[in-house]
Amino acid sequence: DQQVKQNSPSLSVQEGRISILNCDYTNSMFDYFLWYKKYPAEGPTFLISISSIKDKNEDGRFTVFLNKSAKHLSLHIVPSQPGDSAVYFCAASNQAGTALIFGKGTTLSVSS
Amino acid sequence: NAGVTQTPKFRVLKTGQSMTLLCAQDMNHEYMYWYRQDPGMGLRLIHYSVGEGTTAKGEVPDGYNVSRLKKQNFLLGLESAAPSQTSVYFCASSSVGNTIYFGEGSWLTVV
Questions:
Q1: CB-count burial class (<10 Å; 0-12, 13-18, 19+) for B78
Q2: How confident is the model at residue B1 (pLDDT cuts 50, 70, 90)?
Q3: Closest CA to B84 of B46, B111, B52, B56
Q4: Residue B59 pairs with which residues in a beta bridge?
Q5: What Rg do the C-alpha atoms of chain A give, in angstroms?
Q6: CB count in 10 Å sphere of residue B51
Q7: Which residues does chain A have with pLDDT short of 70?
């Protein structure tokens, strides 16, 4: 059973508009959440994270929102740029534990 | 900065052959991981290690073995390769409770 779910395999957005990527999780023990970005033929790179003690974390054009009661988080990219086109993975962990569990990813395409 | 380095980057194996993927990190991280990425499946954890001399199973450990004899190295072994192990393999490392950093990937094809 998937513990981290990204239900939208793909998302298309126009340059300058907002991109919203969603992620749901089932394990209530998760308390640390991250977003990774991946270009073809490269390893995933860290984008932004949030601890369960917060409900929002912002870094430039990227903001992550966490709704613990709904076990839901989202990544907002404003404004979207063509260079943002990539696969975005949501990941979660228990800080007292170890490895990250990833979702299946959402492919974002930003058109100019 | 080298970060996380994986070797080899590309490899073609015949069914039944064995091979080892090597991961090296120069960040003095305690934790190291091996993931595989398959189309439509995201990143799935194979094995991980919380320190030198320790290993643990992840989500999809069958068919793989690992060893962490030195803190900076994490080896992933395939004793008898199968076509189902055709995948892109990513090594990663982290400090306790912190962000994990990935290598660039190793493309393995089993024919």
A1: buried
A2: low
A3: B111
A4: none
A5: 13
A6: 13
A7: 95-98
Whether A32 sits inside 8 A of B102 (CB atoms) is: no
DSSP for A4-24, please give it: EE---SEEEEETTS-EEEEEE
The residues with which B43 forms a beta bridge, in sequence order, are B37
Q: How far is A91 from chain B (nearest CA, A)?
A: 9
Task: Identify which of B99, B95, B75, B78 has the alpha carbon closest to the alpha carbon of residue B30.
Answer: B95
Chain segment A33-47, per-residue pLDDT in tens: 999 999 998 999 999
The closest CB to that of B104, out of A36, A42, A91, belongs to A42
User: In terms of C-beta density within 10 A (0-12 exposed, 13-18 middle, 19 or more buried), how is residue B58 classed?
Assistant: buried
Task: Test A98 with B50 for CB contact under 8 angstroms.
Answer: yes
User: What are the distances in angstroms from CA B50 to CA B55, B74, B77?
Assistant: 7, 11, 18
User: Under DSSP, is residue A108 helix (H, G, I), strand (E, B) or coil?
Assistant: strand
Q: Which of A19, A6, A9 is nearest to A84 (CA)?
A: A19
- Backbone φ and ψ for B56, nearest 5 degrees, come out as -150, 155
